[in-house]
Amino acid sequence: LDTLMQVGLGYIELGQSATTLSGGEAQRIKLATELSRRATGRTLYILDEPTTGLHFEDIRKLLSVLNSLTDAGNSVLVIEHNLDVIKSADWLIDMGPEGGSGGGVVVAEGTPYDVASVSKSHTGTYLAPLLKK
User: Fold this and answer.
1) pLDDT recorded at residue 81
2) Is residue 50 reached through a cis peptide bond, with omega within 30 degrees of 0 on the bond before it?
3) What is the pLDDT of residue 17?
4) Could you tell me the domains of the chain?
5) Residue 32 pLDDT more than 90?
6) C-alpha torsion angle, residues 77, 78, 79, 83 (rounded to 10)
7) Burial degree of 108 (CB within 10 A; 0-12, 13-18, 19+)
């Protein structure tokens, strides 16, 4: 149960049907399961929009868990649109320039500051003001 709390799922009720969980909640349950296993320091975690529907405090908790994973030598790959998560990444790959058939091209890559300086990057445009705070 402590692991579920760490990934921001303290509000989930025991016995709650899996069909009522969002995609992000299901991912975080899987992450909590992985965190409960013996650590190797050689694991690649891939998360697709794990913060969807999360309160700011739960996002902070999740980021803390992800940072502890990388501190332990693991790698974490996150597909995300939440700028608070994006700005905390070590390295970004911004795909675009648009979504769907208008995307699929690497528009920018680098640290959040690098991406924020690329004028063609929609992510960079919205990220830049957050990095100045």
Assistant:
1) 94
2) no
3) 93
4) 1-80 (3.40.50.300), 82-133 (no CATH)
5) no
6) -140
7) buried
- In order of 9, 51, 63, 67, 72, the CA distances from 57 in angstroms are 11, 11, 10, 15, 23
Taking Cα atoms as reference points, which of 68, 23, 26 lies closest to residue 43? 68
Q: 48: which strand partners?
A: 79
pLDDT for 9? 85
pLDDT in tens, 102-112: 999 999 999 99
**CB-based contacts of 47, cutoff 8 Å, min separation 6:** 27, 31, 66, 76, 77, 78, 79, 80
Q: How far is CA 129 from CA 23, 34, 98, in A?
A: 30, 35, 21
Q: What is the pLDDT of residues 43-90, one digit of tens each?
A: 999 988 888 878 888 889 889 989 988 999 999 999 999 999 999 999
Report pTM: 0.81
Q: What residue spans of 1-133 are helical by DSSP H?
A: 2-6, 23-36, 56-71, 83-86, 112-116, 122-131
HSE on the CB side for 100, CA within 13 Å?
Answer: 1
